[in-house]
Amino acid sequence: MTASVNPNIILMDPGLPNVDGWEATRRIKTNPATQSIPVIALTAHAMAGDEQKALQAGCDDYDTRPIDLKRLLGKIDNLLGAR
Tens digits of per-residue pLDDT, 28-54? Predict the structure, then answer.
């Protein structure tokens, strides 16, 4: 579905049902049609090692909830500016 929508950026919840966010990110990053879309993992259930899992899955950045809007917008600006 990501390829048909063609988003500029994806905010990925690692706790997705059926396919977790790490696997969804791996699929996005291995598909040539979607691999250039920046992905930020965004979680409310931050556990030790989650940031490393996110990066290993292919996420371009990681952030936690509650959202610090200024910090998140800065990350989005950095990633979109790098494209």
Answer: 999 999 999 999 999 887 777 888 999
